[in-house]
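Exercise (ungraded).
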Amino acid sequence: MSAAALEAPRIEFPPMKEAPALARWLGLAPRFDIMATLERGPLCYTRLLGKRIYFVNDAEFVKRILLDNAANYPKSVTYRNNLRPFLGDGLLVSEGEFWRRQRRLMQPAFHLRRLRALADTMAGCAAAAAARWSHATIVDVMAQMNAVTMEIVAKTLFGADVSADIAEVADAMAVLQEETGRVRLRAFFELPEFLVRPRGREFRRAVATLDRIVARIVCERRAAAARGEPPREDLLAMLIEAKDADTGDAMTDRQLRDELVTLFLAGHETTAIALTWTFHLLAQHPEAEAKLHAELDAVLGERAAPAFDDLERLPYARMVAEETMRLYPPAYVFSRRALAEDRLGPYRMPAGAHIVISPYALHRRPDYWPEPEAFRPERFAPGEERARPRYAYLPFGGGPRVCIGNAFAMMEHAIVLCAIARRWRLEAIPGREVATEPRITLRPRGGLPMRVVARRA
Ligand code: HEM
């Protein structure tokens, strides 16, 4: 380590605007204005009860953390505290050799040629959702998108086996999402698991419900395989069949359970949020909306939703999704821990630091994104990415821990967007302010009611 390494500037721990004055005065305002803090940079830190929390807002520094020196930066303790109580050792939380093995086992299920088999299921769910709406009604787009992505992930993971349980699974997921969606002070500290584990009865019941349903489906599948029935086309079938290339081992029931619940959680709310912000932005930008309509009318004709082979002929739909996730990345922060001391550009990164990386902040840096507040899907036209550093755009993270569901999510976004936009326009409710709610994900505060207007009968 060179002696010339600089200390990153320290910033005061900024209390949140709406914290009560007495709490601020006593220094008891642990919820801080995260959005304002994230956009400082390129590197700064604050102290939280003696712990250093670094905010990194520079594409090169982020590349070093996520890719070039990734082995030095495992996931932070917040993953274990927030997610492990019900995701167990699923891919989002696990580390080291165990993670590497699971990732290798699961990766083939997400290859494009396997995803092709899931496109029709996605299109069916999307078209059915679009068919349920009526002209001149108000819908909560966030709730609607949550329902359709939940159905898609349930059916693509478990096939028909889950149809009878969807309502029960959705209720359990809503409880878990609510519980784990909160940013809590204790999540930043290495505490024994029993101290951070949510203890509410509702939480325990929701975990038990998911465990019971997943165990039943896995058991039925194993029995069907033992009877010699041909394997299905869903993700569960692929995960059950997957064998480690070196040892030939398949996953145990416990590993399957953790991975399935992880895919279930990671796989629906994020895509629902991206779709929700897309409809919000299209309503604000009629010229982009008109371009999208022209593209999908030309490609779809009278069909209710795109098929897999249509997707490459819908480039503007993809550009709209990418630009939406630039302005509103659903996973707007994620975090790491520095094992050993390291150097980021001129700065020292001390061992043990908690590191916050924010796609939201990187996506709004004016030197990477001219006029960053403007919604311009053309930024994602082919070749445009050469104008900015690769790690300036991170809706799906980067490096070895990049989102495994990236292609799945992009395909799902295009299919749902096109199925809905083919029939309906969504208009903003006049006078209703739309704000972000920064929790674990970046949702619109209070949902997103919009007015449904028919484009065609
Ligand atoms: C728009 C939708 C989505 C967004 C914005 C998103 C975002 C992300 C991000 C940022 C990470 C990295 C987190 C980190 O490095 O700390 C991640 C990881 C992950 N995502 Fe997604 N995701 C989306 C959709 C999906 C879908 C559809 C699935 C599965 C069906 C999925 C499954 C996962 C899993 C399992 C991981 C952990 C991967 C690993 O560590 O090996 N995600 N996602």
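Further reading is listed at the end of the chapter. For now, observe: The radius of gyration is 22 Å. The longest strand covers residues 43-48.
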